[in-house]
């Protein structure tokens, strides 16, 4: 029997699904991620599910690590319950702990934005551990690993090496020094391309804002109050959004991505030099996407595709090369898929499903529908052609609008033409409303009553 494969799970922060050369972006330079896509498989329609926190990365990371939807993944998804919305449920089998219990040496590097108890249960070792949400990239507050989960404030240190370089060097050290016969599960969590987008040279000057094309969905302002137009992310640029300022934001975003891409390449070079590359699975994903000027928005607190779709690249033993799969899948399908590819039984009762049959060509069916949510103000349902977003005025803040959007994604991938008021599309609206209502009730969405 062949040895179980090593796993290198790489997760970025704020990386939109489309901002990769292999995804079709002709401006951003990502040769390493492109090479992973060409040597493996791209799940091109991967969706995150969202949550009730403006820091969307918190619920998204809980979901990817538990392989299930947000109402199973965390202790709470009620607005304002800050002590529990980031806590992975005790009974949830989190991915690092699951692999650890099946003989893997689990090692963490970088960002962990959920509770420390689940972190301690999951990892055998770690380095340069960041438990926060964001920081200056040259002032990263990190801890050394502690097996008892003891991380007092006095143990914190500030690293002045740029975050991407810090985490990359730590990953290389682990790969070069790992000598055990047990397979390893390396969890490498970058804080790039999250703002502040201050990539080092020569990357900072790689993209001239004057040469950055504006996306077709660029708008000076969002066309209505979506309930979250005054959050921190949306204050990174002035209203109305000026073309030159949006181009600068995109240029800086791409610079961060290209810098990170280069350093992921250094990790893969170290893996190849170690002789372990042929028996290692590489996964690249992100916690969520980002608007960066699309629909008049800067952040991720919305349910347009630029914010809810994420990259998912996978290569390794048993994964076909040069394959692109367009079927609808979730980000939390990654966990059971990695179990499948590693010869491990996935935890029972989770919402995630292995896409190994899709990858191997044994099936051509993904999910019929996917769903996403944000706070008590936005809910989304999407099938293989149509997408509906329902908005509600928040009972908590009084902000937002009672509004519906319907997009025909086959003809309008940039989500520009709202068909909801066209009577010819009433059957699509009614069908998607039924789907959304059924899903909210099934997953015990605490705000379902506001949308039904």
From TrEMBL:
Source organism: Paenibacillus contaminans
Taxon lineage: Bacteria, Bacillati, Bacillota, Bacilli, Bacillales
PANTHER family xrefs: IDURONATE 2-SULFATASE
Positions of the Sulfatase N-terminal domain: 5-344
One Gene Ontology cellular component: cytoplasm
Keywords carried by this UniProt record: Hydrolase, Metal-binding
Pfam families in the record: Sulfatase
Family: Belongs to the sulfatase family.
UniProt GO molecular function: metal ion binding; sulfuric ester hydrolase activity
Name this protein carries in UniProt: Sulfatase
Top-level division of the source organism's lineage: Bacteria
The keyword Hydrolase is annotated on this UniProt entry: yes
Record keyword Metal-binding present: yes
